[in-house]
Amino acid sequence: MTGLNDKKLEFALEINDLTVSYKDKPVLWDIDLEIPQGALVGIVGPNGAGKTTLIKSILGLLKPVAGSAKILGLEIDQGIKKIAYVPQRGSVDWDFPATVFDVVQMGTYGKLGWLRRPGIKEKKLTKDALEKVGMLELAHRQISQLSGGQQQRVFLARALVQHAEIYLMDEPFQGVDSTTEQSIVELLRELRNQGATALVVHHDLQTVKDYFDWVVLLNVRKIAAGPVSEVFTETNLKLAFGSRVSLGE
């Protein structure tokens, strides 16, 4: 896969000596990571490896025991506005009384500010994003009435309206059909081609080479990180997952 500009010197994300614990049990241990701008990055590892914890630490939702993260060279509290986040679908209250349009328009609030009401510009951004993910016809439907794939498209549209420089996505392909999965991949490639960076928590080892430029292999510690062609090897996979894992080639 192409699209990574090797001449870029500035990193989208810099993580130094990051350690995060739950009840004194390390979930991430001494993570050092530099993610280049304009890459599609898969975050891969077994259950409990710390993949979601890494995403939440970058967002400032979890306070580390040690270490730090920078977003485009900025501290988290300054750089957070440059990030759009797509959470795990299972972590969202889908019974919340809101329409598809309302949920996507919420993505504009960060730049608009909570005291200002969305105007013509924000409504157009919302419609454009819904059209891009194929959900404009369902704009006035309650989110609780959507299928899993449709719900995922809505949250992707909410991220798109933010016109972010970095996209963090936690299992965006979970519970979606193959058509939705491929459309999400195409959108990710389009964002990458526009210069954005995307970090995607991913579990399907068979599609890593097709979907991503870079990969981060985690199992509490960083096993390896770098271009897929160099890092996504059977040796590294066995270090991350155990000896029974194979690329199946």
* Helix content estimate: 25-40%
The general outline is globular
**Taking strands numbered 1, 2, ... along the chain, how are they ordered across the largest sheet?**
6-7-8-3-9-10
Count of individual helical segments: 10
Order of helices and strands: EEEHEEHEHHHHEHEHEEHH
Class by alpha and beta content? alpha/beta
Mind describing the biggest β-sheet?
Answer: 6 strands, mixed
Strand composition percent: 25-35%
How many strand segments? 10
Radius of gyration: 18 Å
Poorly predicted ranges (pLDDT <50, ≥5 residues)? 5-9
Mean pLDDT: 88
First-to-last CA distance:
18 Å
* Assembly annotation: single chain
Features:
4-stranded antiparallel beta sheet; single chain; 26% strand; 10 strands
Plain-language structure description:
It is built from ten helices and ten strands. The protein is globular. It has helices at residues 51-58, 76-79, 100-105, 109-112, 120-132, 148-160, 178-193, 208-211, 228-231, 234-241; strands spanning 11-22, 25-36, 40-44, 66-71, 74-75, 83-86, 166-170, 197-201, 214-219, 221-227. Strands 6-7-8-3-9-10 form a six-stranded mixed beta sheet, sandwiched between helices.
